[in-house]
Amino acid sequence: MNNSQSLTTRLLLVLLLTTQQVLASLSVFHDIYAYPKYEVNFLDDQYYTVEEAKILLSLNALSSASTAESANSTFSYQLVKTPKEDYLCEIEHIRPDSNDSEDRISKEKQEIIDKIPILSQSIKSELEGKCILLVDGYWTYSLCNNSQVSQFHGGVNSLSNPKLFRYILGNVPSSADAEKEKDLTAKSNYTVGRDHISWYLSKTFDNGTICDLTGLPRTVEVQYSCNPTEGNANLFSSKEYSTCNYIVKISVPELCQEKVFRSRRDPFVSEIKCQKVLQGLGSGEELDHAPQQESMHLPSKISLLNYDLHSLGQELFSGFPKADDDDIIILIDLDSNAENLIERFGSVYFKSLEQNKLVSPAQATILQNEAIGYYFNAHVYDHKGDYEATLEIAFEKQDPPIITITSPKDLLRITSNVKSVITLKDVIGKAMKEGRK
C-alpha cells in the first residue's frame, strides 16, 4: 500500500468513525449494490499495547509484499489518532470469491422453512385477539387479530369510532383458501425473506379496498421478525412500495426464541473493530502512523543457537538470550503449534516462575511489588526459529492473570483468565529466595 492509498484509507476510516452515530439515527433505504459496507464497533473493554499495534500494522506491508499472502488475507489495520486517544482499527475485508456467507444464508433459510409449522403457531398465539398500531405522520396503520391490515386518519382511540373511514389494505385469504389457512402447519402460508440485517416470515393479505388508480384490490405483505429490544408485539414500519401495494413490518417476541432470527448483522457488511492503544505499557514509546518492520526490534527469524533453552512442559521451552541485549523467547516444540498456546502456557506459567524458567534471579526483583501488578511478554518461535506470535501476561494486585496472544499468521487475539492455587505472593517469595542463592 503506497502512502497516498494509506492516507486515503485513514481519511475514509476517520469519516466512518465520526459519522457512525449520525447514520445510526437515520432511517434510509439500503442500496444492495452499495458495497463495500462497513460497521464500526469500539471495543471499550479491550486494548492493544504499543508493541502489539506495531506488529499488527506491519502486517499491511507484509501482505502487500506477498501475492500469496495477500490473496488469503481478510484483515488490514489502520491507526486512527484523535486528540485524546489513539485507536488501532482492524478492518475486515469480505472476499468476492468467498461462498461462506451464501452457504450460511442457504442453511439458515432451510432451517426456518423446516420450523414454519411451529413458528406460525407462535405468531398466532402472540397476535390473536390483539390490535397493534403505528402512527406514521398523517396515517395510522393497524393489524387486528392478525387477519386485517387497515389505514386511517386519526389517533389510536379512533379505532373505537364506528363512523371511522378507513382503507382496508388486506385481509387473510377467506374464500377458496379458508381451509388451507386454518391448517397452520401448511408451509405455503408463509414465505421466508431476509433484509439487510435479519430474517423474517411474510404472508400476503389481499382483497383490500379497491384502489381508485388501478381498479384492483389493495394488497399488503406482512413481515414478521424478531426485535430483541421489544418486549411486546409491535407494528414498527409501513411502506407503500407501489400504487396501493404495501409492506408492514411486525416484531414478534416469540420469534426471538430462535437464534437464527436474532442475527442482526448483514453478512456482507465488513466490520471495523477499534481498540485503544495504551501508551506507556511496556517501553512507553509513542506509536508512529506508519511503523516499519525493521523499527519494531522483532526479528521474523532467529537462530536458536543464540539462546539457552529450558523445558517448561506442555511441549514449550523458554529461551534465555546468550547476549544481554536480546529478550527472552518462548519456543514451540517440533510437533506442536500455537493454536492452544493459552491453555498450555497457562498450565505451566506459575510453576515456571517458581523455578526461574521465565525470569532470571536478577529479573525476579520485578515481582516484588505486588501493589503495581506484573507484566510479562515474550515472542513465540517455532522449532525452525520462525516467528509465530506474541504472548503477554498481565495482572494487577489480586486479580487473576490475563494471558493474551497476538498471532499475525492467524490474526487471532484471544484473552483468557488463568486460575491457579499458587498465589502471587508465594511465587514472589520463592523466586526471590532462588535469586539470593
Topology, please?
Blueprint: H1 3-24, E1 37-49, H2 50-65, H3 67-72, E2 75-81, E3 86-92, H4 100-114, H5 116-127, E4 131-136, E5 139-144, E6 148-152, E7 166-171, H6 178-182, E8 191-194, E9 199-205, E10 219-225, E11 234-242, E12 245-251, H7 259-262, E13 269-278, E14 307-313, E15 316-321, E16 329-332, H8 341-354, E17 374-381, E18 387-395, E19 402-407, E20 412-417, H9 424-436
Parallel strand pairs: 1-13, 10-12, 16-17
Antiparallel strand pairs: 2-3, 3-13, 4-5, 5-6, 6-7, 8-9, 9-10, 11-12, 14-15, 15-16, 17-18, 18-19, 19-20
Pfam families: PRKCSH
GO molecular function, one term: carbohydrate binding
Signal peptide: 1-24
Q: Provide mean pLDDT, rounded.
A: 70
Unreliable sequence segments? 18-30, 65-73, 280-285, 288-297, 368-372, 409-437
Radius of gyration: 30 Å
Task: Tell me the number of helical segments per DSSP (H or I, 4 or more residues long).
Answer: 9
CATH level 1 class label of the largest domain: Mainly Beta
**β-strand number:** 20
State the domain count.
3
- Characterize the main sheet: 7 strands, mixed
**Biggest sheet, spatial arrangement of strands:** 14-15-16-17-18-19-20
Order of helices and strands: HEHHEEHHEEEEHEEEEEHEEEEHEEEEH
Main location: endoplasmic reticulum
GO molecular function: carbohydrate binding
Family: Belongs to the OS-9 family.
Protein name: Endoplasmic reticulum lectin
